[in-house]
């Protein structure tokens, strides 16, 4: 029995899991900060720093950064800012996950509460997180592409991204960075965290090139107060990937293995980071596979994978004006994040609408009490992604690149933001495929075509060739024995009996 097989190496989805985690903490202000009189603005943001596989579970480690903007007791005309990192750990069930799988995680703050305690010297916070993990496994799968016609194969056409080659690279980076002019001198480094973001990746001959950045956040002290500054270190690397060719799809994931900062003079840091990059070269493969058979034992497996349609980046500038009752003096602007509210795929494009969330602290004319204003600046843009179609999967990563708020016409605030959005479109392939064919159950190994003549019935034909009429019925499931028409073509089992005239 001739059976044709094809070997596929693809990234198969192992599974996804999500879980809510509640954190409660009592934050004590450093002794050098004045007690809190009034909270002007408080919010939190969370990030997963590491995801590790443990016996069908994924253990994640991350950090919640709590931001507190406040006015001190008896000092209502000055803004104080305190930032505190709260580490967290969570364990999510993900059956089937194993070491070596590619695990990605995200963490989102869905609820945050802050309350002043101990006469303003402490802060009680409650944070609720939604943590998500997703795992894929690179798997070699043999699929059946053809079998003899007498097994009545059902076939379907699939498109998948076959893994052509993989590679990895570890690289250490060193960078000298200067602190902004509005920050005080450096006395000592307290803490540093880092995150890698890939902006683009493409395949070349024998390699994948990735362009991205490491975002480092350094907390330092001057005399007693703490200050936080952010820096970006550009990443441009070639990763050796055997069999990669230009025109293939490049995929790169990165993990920061180690990061540290040291003081270089009063206004400068030396940042050292060790980065591990994992690259794949993918090629779209289209083939017709067997999904079902009749008259034979067979084994199937469920293929669940995502085919990359394309990705691209676009940016836009948006403005919003806000009318106030009187003249004001802007004291502080802080940007929280950009969020995508709605997204829609059309042919070759993704249409995205969202908001950039800004906070403005200001002092009204003639007042000594600081006020806070949330300004959500709406934005919309179109990202071109050739091959995109409605119904496919759309993933977006928005980021505020620049934000500013200024006073115009005495009592009107004008907010301006530049938002960059990276969009990626994939198509999910979910299909039961035949991987093994066992013993044929009572079906002849070969068939022949026969043209119906006037007066023919399945019973008469079966009697002529000496086979049970049930075999002819099984070979022709789409034919109604009561409605045979001269000229119809049917399949008959090959028989040693007398030939049909």
TrEMBL record:
Matches recorded under Pfam families: LysM, SipL
Segments forming domain LysM: 448-492
Transmembrane parts of this sequence: none
SMART domains the record matches: LysM
PROSITE patterns: LYSM (PS51782)
InterPro entries: LysM (IPR018392), LysM_dom_sf (IPR036779), SipL_SPOCS_dom (IPR024300)
Protein name: LysM domain protein
Originating species: Carboxydothermus hydrogenoformans (strain ATCC BAA-161 / DSM 6008 / Z-2901)
Lineage of producing organism: Bacteria, Bacillati, Bacillota, Clostridia, Thermoanaerobacterales
């Amino acid at each position: 029995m001739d059976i044709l097989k094809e070997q596929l190496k693809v990234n198969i989805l192992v599974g996804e899991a999500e879980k809510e985690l509640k954190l409660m903490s009592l934050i004590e202000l450093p002794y050098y900060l004045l007690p809190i009189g009034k909270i002007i603005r408080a919010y939190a943001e969370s990030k997963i720093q590491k995801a590790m596989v443990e016996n069908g579970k994924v253990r994640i480690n991350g950090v919640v950064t709590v931001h507190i903007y406040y006015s001190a007791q008896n000092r209502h005309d000055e803004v104080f800012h305190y930032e505190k990192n709260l580490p967290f750990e969570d364990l999510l069930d993900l059956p089937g996950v194993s070491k070596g799988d590619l695990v990605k995680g995200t963490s989102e703050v869905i609820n945050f509460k802050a309350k002043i305690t101990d006469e303003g010297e402490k802060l009680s916070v409650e944070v609720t997180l939604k943590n998500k993990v997703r795992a894929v496994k690179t798997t070699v799968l043999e699929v059946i592409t053809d079998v003899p016609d007498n097994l009545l194969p059902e076939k379907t056409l699939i498109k998948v991204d076959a893994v052509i080659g993989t590679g990895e690279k570890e690289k250490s980076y060193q960078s000298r960075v200067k602190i902004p002019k509005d920050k005080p001198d450096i006395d000592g480094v307290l803490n540093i965290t880092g995150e890698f973001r890939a902006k683009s990746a493409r395949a070349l001959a024998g390699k994948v090139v990735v362009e991205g950045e490491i975002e480092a956040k350094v907390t330092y002290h001057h005399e007693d107060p703490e200050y936080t500054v952010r820096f970006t270190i550009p990443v441009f690397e070639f990763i050796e990937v055997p069999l990669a060719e230009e025109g293939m799809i490049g995929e790169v994931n990165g993990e920061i293995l180690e990061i540290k900062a040291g003081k270089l003079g009063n206004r400068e840091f030396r940042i050292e980071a060790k980065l591990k990059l994992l690259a794949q070269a993918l090629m779209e493969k289209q083939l017709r596979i067997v999904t079902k058979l009749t008259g034979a034992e067979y084994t199937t497996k469920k293929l669940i994978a995502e085919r990359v349609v394309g990705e691209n980046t676009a940016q836009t500038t948006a403005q919003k004006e806000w009318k106030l009752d009187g003249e004001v003096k802007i004291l502080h602007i802080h940007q929280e994040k950009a969020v995508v509210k709605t997204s829609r795929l059309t042919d070759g494009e993704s249409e995205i609408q969202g908001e950039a969330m800004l906070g403005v602290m200001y002092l009204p004319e003639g007042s000594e009490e600081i006020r806070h204003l949330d300004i959500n600046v709406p934005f919309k843009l179109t990202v071109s992604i050739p091959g995109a179609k409605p119904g496919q999967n759309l993933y977006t990563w928005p980021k505020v690149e620049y934000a500013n708020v200024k006073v115009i016409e005495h009592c009107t605030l004008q907010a301006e933001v530049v938002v960059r959005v990276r969009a990626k479109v994939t198509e999910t392939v979910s299909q039961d495929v035949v991987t093994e064919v066992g013993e044929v159950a009572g079906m002849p190994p070969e068939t022949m075509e026969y043209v119906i003549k006037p007066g023919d019935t399945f019973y008469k034909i079966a009697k002529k060739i000496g086979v049970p009429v049930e075999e002819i019925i099984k070979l022709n499931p789409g034919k109604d024995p009561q409605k045979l028409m001269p000229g119809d073509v049917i399949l008959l089992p090959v028989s040693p009996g007398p030939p049909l005239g």
